[in-house]
Amino acid sequence: MVVTYDPLLVALSVVIAILGSYTGLRLARRLVPKSGPVRKALLSGAAVTIGGGIWSMHFVGMLAAKMPVLITYDVLLTLISALVAILVTGLGLFIASYGVLNFRKLAAAGLLMGLGISTMHYVGMGAVRANVVMNYGSVLVTLSVLIGICASALALWLAFNQMGPRQTVAAAVVMGLAISGMHYTAMAAMSLSPATVIVDYAAPALSPHLLAIVVAVTAFLIFGFTLLVALPDRPQEAAVPVDQAPMRPVSAPSYLVKIPVQRNKATLLLDLADVVSIQAEAHYTRVYDDKDSYFCSLSLSDLEGKLDPVTFLRVHRSHIINLSHAKSLERRNEQALIRLDGAAAAGVPVSRRNVSKLRTALGL
User: Fold this and answer.
1) What is the reported pLDDT for 236?
2) Which of 28, 158, 163, 182 could form a disulfide with 46 if both were Cys (CB 3.0 to 4.6 A apart)?
3) Cα angle at 22 between 230 and 169, to 5 degrees?
4) H-helix segments, 233-330
5) 8 A C-beta contact, residue 317 and residue 285
6) Are 182 and 148 a contacting pair, CB within 8 Å?
């Protein structure tokens, strides 16, 4: 039995996958400096939009497929396939956004998301009810899973390691193509043959027409979320002439004099001059001096706002350094490193967008 495809619906399925990925990755990028309920809400929104994009893409792709027999879809398995996509995607995003994104975390997150895309597809195919027998070629099935894993890892790296709007768009395109590529490769692995026995399914089923309505509503919501997320984070205020601008009292910012840290159930107060660097540790931080490290209950964003930027500079999404303890600036495998005194002598990574700011602060 030959399966053909409607090219317009195929193109629509790819667009839905890209838009769902863009919206989810844009939300996921905001996870890094957040904590508590805000972080959970952003993670949930990112998982729902990416997982919903995966699910919608799959079933738009199924509607694009012109099969030689009438098919319906098992309601329970269809719902389970959506739940799988959302849960596994959320877990992958959680791993990628937690702390520093190293190779091990990237591999784990990419593996989870790739397997989530693949699992969603095959659970969704298990929901198909038709009097045909589906067989799969092992080579193309393996290839489809590898496409999902590798492209998911690349998309996460672009989204979290290269923090910029162009990188987010590129990551969304890569992930959207990964979702679509996995789906259509898996469909190419499938062959249909007539069933020898006609089976009467008793479980509740969705007709293609009803499924089209459900998918259309889901896709509409994804488009709406995409438009909302694409809005600027902070609207620009109209310029006001200096002679017409209201006079406002200007107060000097209040910075910390010491940093409170915990050691042996006691709170210690570290002199700022002794602090070499600060590193994010989940929702908290670890403060380094020239000999040791200490736990601090303040987040990296909190400390960034409470430390004098003349002395303390955030050089990475997970690191703040004390410029007075800087020893050298170098590159290692395309990664800029700033070497410091004491416990942080091994080097602190500097993100690309902060290299020029650091060089200026160091007078280079």
Assistant:
1) 45
2) 28
3) 85
4) 300-306
5) no
6) yes
Q: 3-class SS at 241?
A: coil
> Are 55 and 179 spatial neighbours (Cβ–Cβ below 8 Å)?
no
Nearest to 346 by CA among 268, 273, 264, 279: 279
- At 278, give phi and psi (nearest 5°): -135, 135
CA-CA distance, 48 to 360, in Å (whole number)?
41
CB 221 within 8 A of CB 149: no
Here the tokens at position 364 are: 């280079």
Q: Which residue in this structure is represented by tokens 């602090």?
A: 275
Distances in whole angstroms, Cα of residue 301 to Cα of each of 275, 285, 305, 318: 17, 10, 6, 9
Q: What residue ranges do the domains of the chain occupy? A: 4-229, 258-361
Structure token digits, residue 185: 């490769």
- Please measure the distance between the N-terminal and C-terminal CA atoms of the chain and give it in whole angstroms: 68
The secondary structure of 114-159 as a DSSP string is HHHHHHHHHHHHHTEE-SEEEEE-HHHHHHHHHHHHHHHHHHHHHH
Find out whether 11 and 5 touch, Cβ atoms under 8 Å: no
What pLDDT score was predicted for residue 101?
A: 67
- Coil/strand/helix, residue 263: strand
Separation of alpha carbons 216 and 336, rounded Å: 47
The strand ranges marked E within the chain are 4-5, 65-66, 72-74, 128-129, 132-136, 190-194, 205-206, 258-263, 266-271, 277-281, 284-288, 293-296, 312-316, 319-322, 326-332, 335-340, 348-350
pLDDT of residue 237: 45
Work out the pLDDT band at 206, boundaries 50, 70, 90.
low
CA–CA gap between residue 346 and residue 143 (Å, rounded):
40
CA distance 168 to 244: 40
CATH topology assigned to domain 258-361 = OB fold (Dihydrolipoamide Acetyltransferase, E2P) (2.40.50)
How many CA atoms does the CB half-sphere of 88 hold within 13 Å?
Answer: 24
115: left (phi over 0), alpha (psi -120 to 50) or beta: alpha
